[in-house]
Amino acid sequence: MRAAAFLLVCTFLGAGIARSDDSCLVRGRVLDHDGKPIPKARILPIVQGLRSTVIDRQGGFALKVDCGCGRVLDIEAVQHRELMIPVITTSGQVIELETRLRPLEWVANFDSVRVIREAEGYSSQAAISMTRRPDGTFAATVPCESESLRYQLLGVSKDGLPTAGTQADTFFLRGGRGIASIRAGRKPVEVVFDPRRLPRAKGDVIVRFADPKSASARIFPLFREDTDQEERMSAAYQSFVAAGGDRDSFHWDASGYRKSLERRIPTERDALRRQYLLLNFFRAGGSKPDSLLALRALDEIPPESPLWGLAPGGPGGAMWRLQHITEQPSRIQAYADKGSETNPDRDVAAGFLAVAMSVAKDAGDKDRLGRYVTRMTSEFQGTFYEEMTRKEFAPNRNIRAGAPAPDFAFTALEDTSQVIRVSDFRGRHLLIDFWAVWCGPCRAEMPTLQQAWEKFRDRGLAVLSVSFDLQRADVTNYRRNKWKMPWQHAFAAEGFRGKESAAFDVMGIPKPVLIGPDGVIEAEGDELRGQSLEKTLAAALGANGQPGSAAPKK
Length: 554
Known about the structure:
alpha+beta, Immunoglobulin-like, Serine Threonine Protein Phosphatase 5, Tetratricopeptide repeat, five-stranded mixed sheet, 15 helices, 32% helix, disordered C terminus
């Protein structure tokens, strides 16, 4: 799904709302490619705290968004591809649009159609195969212990992901994918799938704004270029991994896209579009820095611009890149300072303040950092950045050096009946590493972590890796094909929403925590990453290391 990465990042932007009290209206219609209503569709503004809007039977919708901000609307529909649309609002303005979605791409041959059920957690391991019938349809008798059978089909969509079947009394949406529901009355149901009833269209998605000169309409084509680029990269990555490729060896050549942006920036006369091209140029990364363009971006893109609300993850990524290229941290700090004061989007303003905090921290400016922390915790309560600040800087935070570690009981990775408690390791140093296979920075730490394990395990170091992956098999495959990671492993089934995350203040990964033999935290965070890991472990275990043969208490 194209919106998955954007949603994942923006989920962590917090529940804050824009500073302005007024709301702007976005309304219009969402139809299929032939101009007909879709059985089930909804629009979700990608900012935490705002609720989705279900599209009515005629395809109509109306929703309110914060004025003066840039917002991304994610349109989800049964058996259709997701579509993201940027909207830039001003007070008193009504944005009207109509969109015709593009259906999913279907497999050429339906030779392996299977049913997965809600009762089984939509697990592919419990899938029921369907039998082809002479009329070209497929059928399977599916058990049902509830009043309704909610199900999806595998082997239908070309991207390999589950989708809704063609037989349903009603449809639901789950994570952007459709779910079909049939009344069952707690009895087995014969589910029939008819490929001829799947929507099909050769044309691309169509989006029409009532005012083609509006800011939203002018930005939309550039936004589509950016999201299409990310979609191609995501598809290439998934294919690479599915073919057995090493995740860390994947390379995506974005030079063509960057050159296209660089070529168009000087010739673009529309100031808003030029600013968006500049912003995307630095978001796209690349190995060739351009300090003149970086300075131009800082000059031309106002800190209060609504365009910052369209950047996944807020201003942090682009600002870090601009700082790296310009090598002018004071200018970055001044820009971020102003953005935290003037940007009307409360979450973006908090993101700018987080950038300013990072610059102050790196410079060792404790006085300025203290003022920023005070501002963050008083002005931006309820945002992700405020929560992160409290967990990183608050003197009474739970996870800090000198505080007792929670005696948490983790669920083992491979044997779900096994419990691994923190207190099991009393008498040894325990390094807990919160990580995931999908997390690039986590994987980048593996050579250093492996080296530290080899060097310090005989001095009393134990390691427990806690995975935030979606499936246990992801970790098993990674250990089989990449790093052996010959220490203990646990699995956090609910990820950032789980008890593990709450107990150890996990706002992002990787997050390492070092616990001493007495159960007291000795270090956490950056002190245990990269080159700092060995130095911290040497200080902790070098002189007073425990014998490596000491077994953890049971």
